[in-house]
């Protein structure tokens, strides 16, 4: 008996009095989850986490221009900063933790090689206005990226500078507008046709550029109603904006007819390339009659979503639109690379400039690193696996949940409606929140708007079969619980997340968008 | 009280019409978080967007059901938008409009016709 | 293929579960004429080593800012970023998450956005700031569009001190919706011309401080003139660190601040990704572009944060949205807010003073060179000099000798006729030895 525990330390868990997980802690923390206050609520006024040399000037040569009042910026020492942000990070779901099946967002694995490459000083530590002779490698990279993008899409030209998908849409529509202006048709062509299922950026962009938006109906099988489109096309239409594969996760079967009708009417075909991941390497948009399409590098080409950005939205352009591409662009002269920064220099028809510099260089490096890693064979496999994974989910869940478009295969995302929840008193939102408790990020909800209570699931190609099965198993268990009347599990969910459901009404009614010092406090803030 | 197909209501007293959005509309929007009402003196035609109402999940233009000149916007809604949910067809009114053609109000749906219309949606 | 987990057996089993014979069955909706067999004409799969070699070779052809005497600015600035910043932004939970659509499992992102919004509001001296836009130039364009909505007027007066690329990026977008711009002639000190240009049709006045020539300007008079005419004052800031030393735009009467935040936490990156700071007065909130994070409580009454006021945005308002923007600069915001938290007010002021100190030392060194005329009267960390030679040629000659001497103004606006003007920036990273090298080399080139 020499190994007897003589200091009273129990080595097996106590028998629990009950299984009630509701056992609030005294401090608000929960195990690994720390209750972390705002940096403004600490004691960091006057503190700093950097060691800088003592300045030799006090700025008095600037006289009255010097800022005298307190600014209101607390400081953290390095260990405090590390803790603060690590504690915050642990309250986030992430792709690296589990499947993140947000439909239309393409949350795929973000290779770390991309990060390493983007941080090479030769890319990250160069200034956008250095003499071009000193950035030949950067221009070469842009030229290479352009080659990959134009080859994969079968389009002759690409404008790299748009800073996100919506910015790319803006670029595409501006090019279309410029083309109509060049033909003297801009004044008569003031409408843009957009299907009802479109992402909100499409109508917002068309309106942003000054077009009026006309909606095009959808057929019962989730595609553009070609007859309705044909009836709305005419000499007053500047462009159509169609997402393909569309936001219902379906390939537009009549795409060739759509582009033919559009071109016959003298309009241009803008394709929203948000879902290019489903067809990359297998279908070239150029073969579909597309005139302009943005490519979200953060979707198809794996640059990180980063909590909401930064994105990148290069736009590929047809022969008809290529002359109107905005500055700047790269030309390979044979003796080196040249960055054309002024549209007057080479092509008088360029519509202008979309941002101060060359666009999202950091994202170009990551995207090219990803494309080179996959190669043409790997990229084709990307599309195939993305589509296979989505169809697998659709097939495995369709007996319990109602697929919005059960006939035929889907592309890269599986769309369900809330028909199957009828009579359960559980909504799509409730179901999504219960998924959180099971460790999954919910799918996209209530989008596209054309499907009631929509649940749009996009697994991407970087999920293993094992992870898909784990997800499918959880979804099945939840669906069965919903049907069995286990309503509380859903209505109150999530119970196990860092926070319970948040009061969005309160946030919107009296917005508090910044921290302010409590009344009566003498904190050195405004 | 009369209603439009866009779910505005009108109550005419003399030549001044009080207008707002119907209970059906308020319920469909959910919790109203913001209302922008017109300033006095603004002239509106039938169908003009003259106010905005927002919930967390939706934003909607409110169309003038009658033509005329705005006499008063309901300023109280700026700080208490929830009134639109609590009492849409009373305290939650949007504006008072001095109408140019009172007979136009008669052409709108009455309560029974509006209720019947709602069942068709 | 290392990024693809499915095995051939998995694929076969999954096809069977679906009831498909081959992968081609899942692509049947693609018209026959658009199907492509085989691979597109690009290289095949490549291992990490191959990719790293190829990209490193390209990177190696560029002259990096940290290893040469470096004086480029004009909207992008070389600053030291603490190592903590890059470590934290690469944490999986930040790097590989998305827009916080599900706030219960995105409080990490939401809380830093709330802190970021507060820092930006305080830094700019404004009441509210959004969760960022793409960059400073697109923020300026959004500011002009917002001003036309607020004032229901249609003309923007743009100071001759605003960065020409910002002007171009703004004009490209706002002209498309019929907004007129009156861009004034390039001027080192532009205050009087701006005031003279304001009239009853002016929706907004856009000024930059420090301006593209480096001039730090008291904007109070311009603000008064703009407000007297019922116009808004939009203040552009391309060097965010300057606000640690100079009076904030808010103190000087700005209605909208459109700033580039790259200087805090973010690398030069050859121009992007950067981070657009956008701040304004609370009463104008409903007309602003972009997303906001707001404070609220959860079902148990605990404080939490959510995206809010989204009815202005495209996913709800569609064609009536205040902007078509859908993303923000997420990770760049995070880098900004971490760096700012490390600096704190004390560190920011110190860093700003060091920038000023180095710029003054550089100015003094260049001013001593025969033929060099300093144009900028008051500046933060950047100033313009007039050279007796073509500035672009001088810069090229110095670059050929391993010195990045600054940005010739003609690079930004060749039509301005300021071919002899060079913009020179210095920061806390500038070494005294580099200033000597620059001055010595410039003197030699000018004497040649």
From TrEMBL, chain A:
CDD domains: GDC-P. GO terms for molecular function: glycine binding; glycine dehydrogenase (decarboxylating) activity; pyridoxal phosphate binding. It comes from Brevundimonas bullata. It is an enzyme of class 1 (oxidoreductase). The keyword Glycoprotein does not apply. GO terms for biological process: glycine decarboxylation via glycine cleavage system. This is glycine dehydrogenase (aminomethyl-transferring). Residues 181-306 form the Aminotransferase class V domain. Its EC number is 1.4.4.2.
UniProtKB/TrEMBL annotation, chain B:
Binds 1 lipoyl cofactor covalently. Keywords: Lipoyl. Pfam families: GCV_H. The modification N6-lipoyllysine is found at residue 57. Its cofactor is (R)-lipoate. GO terms for cellular component: cytoplasm; glycine cleavage complex. Coiled coil: none annotated. GO terms for biological process: glycine decarboxylation via glycine cleavage system; protein lipoylation. Residues 16-98 form the Lipoyl-binding domain. The keyword tRNA processing does not apply. InterPro entries: 2-oxoA_DH_lipoyl-BS, Biotin_lipoyl, GCV_H, GCV_H/Fam206, GCV_H_sub, Single_hybrid_motif. The glycine cleavage system is composed of four proteins: P, T, L and H. PANTHER family: GLYCINE CLEAVAGE SYSTEM H PROTEIN, GLYCINE CLEAVAGE SYSTEM H PROTEIN-RELATED. The glycine cleavage system catalyzes the degradation of glycine. The H protein shuttles the methylamine group of glycine from the P protein to the T protein. HAMAP family: GcvH. Belongs to the GcvH family. This is Glycine cleavage system H protein. The gene is gcvH.
TrEMBL record, chain C:
It is an enzyme of class 1 (oxidoreductase). Residues 1-438 form the Glycine cleavage system P-protein N-terminal domain. GO terms for biological process: glycine decarboxylation via glycine cleavage system; nucleoside metabolic process. It holds the Pfam family GDC-P. It comes from the Bacteria. It catalyses: N(6)-[(R)-lipoyl]-L-lysyl-[glycine-cleavage complex H protein] + glycine + H(+) = N(6)-[(R)-S(8)-aminomethyldihydrolipoyl]-L-lysyl-[glycine-cleavage complex H protein] + CO2. Keywords: Oxidoreductase. Its EC number is 1.4.4.2. Belongs to the GcvP family. N-terminal subunit subfamily. The glycine cleavage system catalyzes the degradation of glycine. The P protein binds the alpha-amino group of glycine through its pyridoxal phosphate cofactor; CO(2) is released and the remaining methylamine moiety is then transferred to the lipoamide cofactor of the H protein. The glycine cleavage system is composed of four proteins: P, T, L and H. In this organism, the P 'protein' is a heterodimer of two subunits. This is Probable glycine dehydrogenase (decarboxylating) subunit 1. The lineage of its organism: Bacteria, Pseudomonadati, Pseudomonadota, Alphaproteobacteria, Caulobacterales.
């Amino acid at each position: 008996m020499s190994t007897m525990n003589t200091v009273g330390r129990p080595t097996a868990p106590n028998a629990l009095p009950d299984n009630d997980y509701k056992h609030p802690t005294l401090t608000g923390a929960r195990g690994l989850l720390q209750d972390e206050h705002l940096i403004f609520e600490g004691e960091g006024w006057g503190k700093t986490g950097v060691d800088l040399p003592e300045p030799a000037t006090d700025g008095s040569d600037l006289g009255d221009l010097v800022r005298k009042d307190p600014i209101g910026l607390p400081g953290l020492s390095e260990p405090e900063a590390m803790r603060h942000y690590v504690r915050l990070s642990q309250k986030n779901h992430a792709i690296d933790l589990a499947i993140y099946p947000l439909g239309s967002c393409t949350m795929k694995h973000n290779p770390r090689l991309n990060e390493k490459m983007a941080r090479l000083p030769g890319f990250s530590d160069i200034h956008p206005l250095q003499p071009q002779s000193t950035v030949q490698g950067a221009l070469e990279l842009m030229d290479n990226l352009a080659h990959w993008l134009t080859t994969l899409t079968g389009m002759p030209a690409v404008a790299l500078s748009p800073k996100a998908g919506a910015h790319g849409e803006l670029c595409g529509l501006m090019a279309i507008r410029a083309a109509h202006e060049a033909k003297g048709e801009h004044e008569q062509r003031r409408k843009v046709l957009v299907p009802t299922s479109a992402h909100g950026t499409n109508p917002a962009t068309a309106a942003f550029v000054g077009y009026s938006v006309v909606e095009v109906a959808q057929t019962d099988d989730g595609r553009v109603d070609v007859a309705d489109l044909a009836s709305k096309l005419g000499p007053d239409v500047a462009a159509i904006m169609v997402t393909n594969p569309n936001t219902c996760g379906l390939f537009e079967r009549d795409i060739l007819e759509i582009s033919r009708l559009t071109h016959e009417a003298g309009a241009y075909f803008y394709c929203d390339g948000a879902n290019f991941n489903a067809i990359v390497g297998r279908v070239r948009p150029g073969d579909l009659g597309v005139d302009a399409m943005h490519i979200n590098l953060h979707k198809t080409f794996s640059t990180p979503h980063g909590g909401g950005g930064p994105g990148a939205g290069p736009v590929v352009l047809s022969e008809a639109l290529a002359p109107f591409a905005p500055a700047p662009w790269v030309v390979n002269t044979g003796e080196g690379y040249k960055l054309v920064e002024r549209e007057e220099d080479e092509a008088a028809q360029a519509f202008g400039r979309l941002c101060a510099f060359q666009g999202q260089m950091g994202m170009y490096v990551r995207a090219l690193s990803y494309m080179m890693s996959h190669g043409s064979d790997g990229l084709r496999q990307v599309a195939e696996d993305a589509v296979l994974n989505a169809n697998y989910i659709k097939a495995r869940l369709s007996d319990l949940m109602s697929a919005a478009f059960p006939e035929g295969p889907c592309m890269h995302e599986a769309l369900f409606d809330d028909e199957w929840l009828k009579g359960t008193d559980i909504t799509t939102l409730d179901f999504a929140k219960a998924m959180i408790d099971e460790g999954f990020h919910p799918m996209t909800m209530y989008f596209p708007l054309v499907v009631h209570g929509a649940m749009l699931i996009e697994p991407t190609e970087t999920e293993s079969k094992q992870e898909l099965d784990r997800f499918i198993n959880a979804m099945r268990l939840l669906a069965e619980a919903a049907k069995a009347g286990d309503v509380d599990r859903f209505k109150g969910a999530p119970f196990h997340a860092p926070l319970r459901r948040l009061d969005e009404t309160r946030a919107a009614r009296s917005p508090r968008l910044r921290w302010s010092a409590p009344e009566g406090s003498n904190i050195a803030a405004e | 009280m009369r209603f439009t197909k866009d779910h505005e209501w009108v109550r005419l007293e003399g030549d001044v019409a009080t207008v707002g959005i119907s209970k059906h509309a308020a319920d469909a929007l959910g919790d109203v978080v913001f209302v922008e009402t017109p300033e006095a003196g603004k002239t509106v035609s039938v169908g003009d967007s003259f106010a905005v109402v927002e919930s967390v999940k939706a934003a909607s233009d409110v169309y003038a059901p009658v033509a005329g000149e705005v006499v008063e916007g309901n300023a109280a809604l700026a700080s208490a938008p929830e009134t639109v949910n609590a009492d849409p067809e009373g305290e939650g009114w949007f504006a008072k409009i001095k109408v140019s053609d009172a007979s136009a109000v008669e052409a709108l749906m009455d309560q029974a016709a509006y209720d019947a219309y709602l069942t068709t949606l | 293929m290392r990024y693809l987990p499915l095995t051939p057996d998995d694929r076969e089993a999954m096809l069977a579960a679906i009831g498909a014979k081959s992968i081609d069955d899942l692509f049947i909706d693609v018209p026959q004429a658009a199907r492509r067999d085989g691979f597109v004409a690009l290289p095949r799969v490549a291992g990490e080593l191959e990719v790293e070699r190829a990209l490193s070779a390209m990177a190696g052809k560029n002259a990096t800012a940290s290893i040469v005497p470096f004086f480029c600015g004009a909207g992008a600035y070389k600053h030291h970023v603490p190592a903590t910043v890059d470590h934290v932004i690469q944490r999986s939970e930040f790097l590989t998450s998305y827009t916080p659509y599900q706030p219960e499992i995105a409080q990490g992102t939401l809380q830093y956005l709330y802190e970021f919004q507060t820092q930006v509001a305080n830094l700019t001296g404004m009441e509210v700031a959004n969760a960022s836009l793409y960059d400073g130039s697109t923020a300026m364009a959004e500011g002009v569009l917002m001003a036309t909505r607020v004032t229901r007027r249609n003309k923007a007066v743009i100071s001759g001190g605003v960065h020409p690329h910002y002007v171009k990026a703004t004009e490209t977008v706002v002209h498309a919706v019929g907004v007129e711009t009156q861009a004034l002639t390039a001027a080192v000190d532009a205050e009087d011309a701006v005031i003279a240009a304001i009239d009853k049709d002016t929706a907004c006045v856009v000024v930059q401080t420090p301006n593209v020539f480096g001039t730090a300007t008291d904007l109070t008079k311009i603000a008064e003139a703009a407000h007297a005419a019922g116009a808004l004052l939009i203040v552009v800031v391309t060097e965010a660190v300057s606000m640690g030393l100079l009076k904030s735009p808010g103190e000087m009467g700005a209605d909208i601040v459109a700033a580039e935040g790259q200087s805090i936490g973010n690398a030069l990156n050859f121009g992007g990704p950067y981070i657009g700071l956008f701040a304004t007065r609370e009463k104008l909130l409903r007309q602003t572009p972009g997303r906001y994070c707001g404070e609220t409580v959860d079902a148990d009454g605990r404080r939490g944060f959510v995206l809010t006021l989204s009815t202005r945005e495209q996913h709800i308002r569609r064609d009536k949205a205040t902007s078509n923007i859908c993303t923000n600069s997420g990770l760049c915001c995070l880098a900004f807010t971490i760096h700012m938290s490390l600096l704190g007010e004390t560190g920011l002021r110190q860093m700003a003073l060091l920038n000023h100190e180095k710029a003054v030392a550089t100015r003094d060194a260049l001013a001593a060179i025969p033929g060099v005329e300093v144009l900028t009267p008051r500046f933060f960390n950047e100033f313009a000099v007039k050279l007796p030679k073509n500035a672009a040629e001088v810069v090229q000659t110095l670059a050929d000798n391993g010195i990045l001497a600054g940005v010739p103004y003609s690079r930004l606006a060749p039509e301005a006729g300021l071919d002899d003007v060079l913009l020179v920036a210095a920061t806390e990273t500038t070494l005294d030895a580099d200033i000597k090298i620059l001055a010595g080399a410039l003197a030699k080139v000018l004497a040649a």
